């Protein structure tokens, strides 16, 4: 994610890093070259009776803009929902540990429990990004728990089961009444909601045909646009054509980035930073002394 | 559902499988033929004083695009809600079994309970797809339960009742306190929410008149468009006419597919894969050894 | 509600029943006649300096389309919410009876309770449709309860109170612990949510001024459209004018139908069928033998 | 609120009362006069080289329509949310009293409690409409409670506190177990949600700059429109200009009314009627004999 | 936040303070100067064959308006959600204290607890606005609690932990049953939801690329617009160009303000006033005598 301080409106126009411009530069450049070719060959192909006007492109442009707006909305909703799920994980983690600590203030194994919670967050993050997990999780989990988690199709779900067992042991030993066990269990269920929600977003893309239809119509529109503009604009065609193409192609490309919010591209969620903040919070709540440093945006305002 | 890896923007333009293009090809081809006929017969029917211009089609095009955008939204919401309901089933299933296993760790009938849960998921899937269920459910249910379920108007609801009875027996035998019985019951209620939500989506289509009005206006628009374009574009008419028609008809056809998200078309939900993942998860949580293989997309990236 | 099987795209264009076409046919026909008059009298009134062009209608058409889209959205939301409320009633009814049956399996009065639940659904349906209730409810309620319900401003609410009393008696007799009484009471509260939600939709229309403003602008737009089109299209004016008018007027008329989802028009909710399904479900859950037949769409695919 | 029976589409065009037309008539009339002046002075100012065309107004018109649609949406959401909050108050009130009556059926002070509930509704209504409350509330509250409420910044919140104390006394006396006290308390919390939600809507307007920007652009657009239209339409300019202005100004004015849903204008919520219905319901649930009459719309279909 | 009384529509057009006009005046003025330069140099650059027409700008204008509408929606949603979170804090604070006071009416430390609640609100406010907190919080917290909060990464979360401990002590001493402790704990969890929700909004901006793409296209559009208009409008170009630019740039600037709702700009949330109201409410509920004065809008209708 890009975390820039607010800037003067004029400077924003010249920002390169963090825009999708780097990604679509080739396509815009090809559009520019095509437009020049269209201008130069105009006399030849108009002599063949080949002619386009702006009017049908106006109809098409509005329709594509509306449908692109719809797809943007759908992709942005996924991004927002993904962020909300991680916010809910923060809420559930803090609430769960607060309740545990208030209810069992003198339990000698609180450090173990807090590490199970931290492991859950990192495990979910690494699952979503398809990163290898064993090494990192070994910092937080006992060997036995680590093996159980790694053997499972869904390691994060297994960690939840282990946390539930931790609480159930306290219930069986009489330290937790049924009411409080039920209450703590609800926090685990909240985490289960986050887990399955993230899995859902990661596994179910926006219907592929949307992407396809819009991709095609946007590119065909941009390819044919110079032919339509050249009659009116002549030498100005390449500039206007690139400006219009930029508007449409940039939003198409951004929607594609937002569709998969768990990646590590410029406009994806900073899961590393969220996990880091969660880890600091939980360790501080347990009054531990060794707290990791806080992750900050790098020189290019990038936070992963 | 189509699960494609992200691809180069240029290759996407030429993808055939998974688009709705295969479905609407005939219509676009008819539109192309009509456009050619319009170009060829232009001298004849203009001599009759028959004339169309682009301007009124511009008004109509914008209006149809806005209303089509609205219908797309309505159909996509159904798709998203259906997916969320299955996500909630995943959540409720895992949470229910985690609570049961943590509360009754040594119960000898956990295997029976986990199979009731798996049967519920498969039963719901097969009900929504109107597939015969008895054979599949017999893998998970005892003969008596299977008969009770099959005799019911809503077999999935009957399975819920059986699960509730399983828990109630433990309560009556004193193994579950009222608090924990209440908590587990809430998980069953969550499943009831999923069940009735899916039934609602399956039984209540988007109001038929929406489909009808848009269908008609889209097709009339596409049929008359070549007459309007031919004055300006002449020989280019068939190409632009097909491009505009593609944009409108493809989105109309996609909305139709998304409207019924439980089918087995390209853009429908992969219920088989979801049930399979749920089955693996639950069996692993019960530490069973015979776990079914995971379903993966086929050669054409299709996951049912 | 119209429940049609999916059909070939070509056949859909000619469907008459279930569209709003029957409702707006007169208006479209008047528009057609007006357009013909406009074409015929063109020489006369243009000699008076009376002239309209398409350009301002283009601005107006877009604005009306956007606002109509907004109103459609508002009305469709009411329809969707109404359907969801009835879905929640299904959920609450099944969950309530499942909990009651699991908790009090041998109670001799379960049949009475299940009939109270069924009476609630029918009573709500008939209240929303302003139908006389006493006769139907007498099948399910004792004379005393029926009188109490009929004497109340909100009979459905009174039935809820009676159900609460049924449960409270069991609590006072020691058959229900406070926890389970609390849990069952929450299901009654869910039904109360449905009741008040439906009352809200029935009593609070979309602000009347929306209806009025859009009605007026849509009709004025359609009346003046032929004058604007005739300059360009001449003899084609009536056809294009009716096509544009159809798009706008049909959506306006549909929004009006959806605004009141509890009626018995083509695009309203099939409350009869929902109540029927609920009744069958509940009676089967109580293992009763006399189950009413399932309601199916009639010959015209109509389900009330 | 206007509660009209459904009417013939033709009659709706001529409705005066309940539309915003009465409110914006002056503005439309000024627009009409301006348009006439523009037509008459056209020869003079065109000789000065002053000229406008429709094309830039087309861009502006679409943009304003989109932004106006957005603002309408925001204001309508406030209206809908306000109505939903009052619906939730209905739900919480009925559920709370049902639970109280079922749990404490023979308590001699139920009449006092039901009046506290009624007082809460009226107090909230009068707070939102900034009406004096003491006189009305004295019908329902004891002198001591009335004074406590009136001395508070938020009288409705104080009434909630008194209701909580009423329940707490019963708990301390052993008539309510902790579980049931907790359950009833949750209903009070639901009322607290309604209270703070209504305060939020009343105190936090849609950002003032939205209102301002749209106001300005709408009026500037309508003022300059006749200059742009006169070239094409000549004598027809005033009529078309007023029609376009009506569409934009009427929706702007309606959004303004909906923004403050708690007022007593034509399109505001009928809080009097809602409180009246709630009062009747609660008194009937307590089987009281003196029930106030039901409020109905007046001759002009107006319900306050 | 600007809190203006409703005003005559004519006066609104001339309001300066509270609009974003002060912020974008320079940009509009530059646009005006550029337009004049375009008009004056028209003969020179048209002789070079440099020519623009309105048609492509019409396509671009609609597309930008749609995408700007989308961004406005996204930013406004953040504003609304932020306001709702603070409303929920109000709800949770009142409910928590009501329950505490009703359950422990004679506890001598209620004053301490109410100050912990007030400290939480102020702490959250100052965290979101990145203001120094120690001085203000010292009015409400004991020295020990203050130090604990200040040493934490998230002081507000630490205050929640302290409140939980306050309740847990009462539970351990037998004054709170597990049920009531559980109920009060849920209110703390509600506060945790508000805390993490606000952190989420503050830390996760709308994807930077949206801001960038729209910024660029809006400004490029406004810069090139005069060249396109001058052909048709000549001397009127600067006026129309500024009007169109105002519509687009003002909404772009407003979206930027709303994106960060916790600031102290004209259109940001009045957190000071909300905290103040919460403080008064809680102190009055505890029947304290020293109540701070209520914050009111200043002379310019500004409430921070």
UniProtKB/TrEMBL annotation, chains A, B, C, D, E:
<keyword id="KW-0812">Transmembrane</keyword>
<keyword id="KW-0406">Ion transport</keyword>
<dbReference type="GO" id="GO:0005254">
    <property type="term" value="F:chloride channel activity"/>
</dbReference>
<feature type="transmembrane region" description="Helical">
    <location>
        <begin position="52"/>
        <end position="70"/>
    </location>
</feature>
<dbReference type="Pfam" id="PF25539">
    <property type="entry name" value="Bestrophin_2"/>
</dbReference>
<keyword id="KW-1003">Cell membrane</keyword>
<dbReference type="InterPro" id="IPR044669">
    <property type="entry name" value="YneE/VCCN1/2-like"/>
</dbReference>
<comment type="similarity">
    <text>Belongs to the anion channel-forming bestrophin (TC 1.A.46) family.</text>
</comment>
<keyword id="KW-0813">Transport</keyword>
<protein>
    <recommendedName>
        <fullName>Bestrophin</fullName>
    </recommendedName>
</protein>
<keyword id="KW-0472">Membrane</keyword>
<dbReference type="GO" id="GO:0005886">
    <property type="term" value="C:plasma membrane"/>
</dbReference>
<feature type="transmembrane region" description="Helical">
    <location>
        <begin position="208"/>
        <end position="229"/>
    </location>
</feature>
<feature type="transmembrane region" description="Helical">
    <location>
        <begin position="28"/>
        <end position="46"/>
    </location>
</feature>
<keyword id="KW-1133">Transmembrane helix</keyword>
């Amino acid at each position: 994610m890009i975390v820039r301080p607010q800037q003067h409106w004029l400077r924003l126009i010249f920002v390169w890093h963090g825009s999708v411009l780097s990604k679509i530069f080739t396509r815009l450049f090809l559009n520019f070259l095509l437009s020049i070719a269209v201008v130069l060959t105009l006399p030849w192909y108009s002599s063949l009776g080949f002619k386009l006007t702006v009017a049908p492109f106006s109809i098409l442009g509005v329709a594509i803009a509306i449908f692109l707006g719809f797809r943007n909305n759908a992709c942005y909703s996924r991004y927002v929902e993904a962020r909300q799920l991680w916010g809910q994980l923060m809420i559930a983690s803090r609430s769960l540990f607060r309740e545990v600590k208030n209810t069992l203030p003198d339990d000698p194994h609180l450090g173990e429990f807090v590490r199970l919670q931290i492991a859950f967050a990192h495990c979910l993050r690494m699952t979503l990004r398809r990163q290898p997990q064993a090494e990192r999780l070994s910092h937080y989990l006992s060997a036995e728990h680590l093996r159980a988690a790694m053997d499972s199709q869904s390691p994060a779900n297994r960690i939840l089961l282990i946390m539930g067992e931790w609480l159930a042991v306290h219930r069986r030993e009489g330290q937790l009444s049924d009411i409080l066990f039920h209450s703590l269990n609800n926090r685990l269920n909240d985490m289960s909601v986050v887990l399955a929600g993230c899995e859902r977003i990661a596994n179910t893309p926006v219907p592929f045909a949307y992407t396809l239809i819009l991709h095609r119509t946007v590119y065909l529109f941009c390819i044919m646009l110079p032919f339509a503009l050249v009659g009116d604009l002549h030498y100005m065609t390449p500039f206007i054509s690139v400006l219009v193409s930029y508007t449409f192609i940039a939003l198409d490309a951004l929607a594609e980035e937002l569709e998969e919010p768990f990646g590590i591209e410029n406009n994806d969620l900073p899961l590393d930073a969220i996990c880091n903040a969660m880890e600091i919070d939980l360790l501080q709540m347990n009054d531990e002394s060794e707290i990791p440093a806080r992750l900050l945006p790098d020189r290019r305002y990038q936070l992963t």
